[in-house]
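Sequence in, structure out. Go.
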Amino acid sequence: MGIRQFTLITILPLFFLSSCGDQPDKNKQEKVNNTETQLSETKDTMPQASKAPEKKEQEKFVLTEENAIDFFFNYQKQLKDHMKVRFTTSFGNFIVELYDNVPYHKANFIYLTRMGYFDNTQFHRVVKNFIIQGGNSDDKATADKRREIGRYLLPPDTRKGYRHDRGTLSMPSSEINNPHMLASPYEFFIVVTKPGAYHLDGDYTPFGKVVEGMDVVDKINVVRVGKGDWPFQNVYIKKAEVIE
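Output:
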């Protein structure tokens, strides 16, 4: 074998080894480049974490002397005619139907019912052969509900031709200094007297009547009472609900 032939044979393996040795480095570099490109593209396309929206505490609507009339004027526009409310009491159930042409008192009563105000209140005043009065309670929860709904009074509406017949649903005047006989919106009374308590006409506002369950009203009217006409045994309104 000549020197030239030996040199060629020697160089070829070295060239092959040199070429093979470079290939992994090239592939590695290409992978690195591809990975960097993918990361860059991913970074560009990845949705950025958005800031959580700031929670703004929604102010609760509270009725006042200033806004109550406007509120109920608008509220009564969405109400249907001949609306009824069912009372579930610890003595049984009865149903009242509200007069359509006494709009503020009707709207107030429906609103309080839907707000759950009357639930777990009591018939706190019972005068035998006269009235039962409900919508109050000595429970703290009732005072809390009044505070959340608001402090306001309603003007009397006594000229619609309704009288205080037996079974009439009417609204008492407020206990505060009240020369204009403004109505206490959270309470109501039902006339038991036969044929009616007509001496109340002109001073209080009839806004509905009992149409079912007057026997339950009569049962409540004969419970034993103590000082202030408050029943010895609590007479609860378990639930009041609008039935349309």
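Check: The first strand starts at residue 84 and ends at 89. Helices lie at 3-45, 68-75, 103-114, 140-149, 214-221.
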